[in-house]
Design goal:
Layout lengths: L32 H9 L3 H5 L3 H16 L3 H7 L10
Length: 88
């Protein structure tokens, strides 16, 4: 959140707030560092509950950002990994 002032609990493009693509801090390595933090804190929960919702939500959010946030598609080309460097 320190390197992305547009970080939010919901997926929304903040055009009225002048949202830009966050490329500093952890966003240099993964496109969704907030999810990395959440997954790190509860890495076993999806496996224990048999739920893939966290991974599905990440993919859906990434698609929304690529479709609606100017510059995000280019950023996604530069930073290939959504959550885990060298994996996904």
């Amino acid at each position: 959140m320190a390197s992305n002032r547009f970080f939010s609990r919901s997926v929304r493009i903040q055009k009225d707030g002048g949202q830009i693509v966050a490329t500093a801090g952890p966003c240099q390595c993964v496109r969704h560092p907030g999810y990395v933090g959440m997954i790190t804190c509860s890495v076993a929960a999806p496996l224990l509950l048999g739920s893939l919702w966290g991974l599905i939500r990440t993919a859906l959010e990434d698609k929304t950002l690529q479709d609606e946030l100017n510059g995000y598609r280019d950023y996604a080309q530069r930073v290939r990994y959504r959550l885990v460097p060298k994996i996904w």
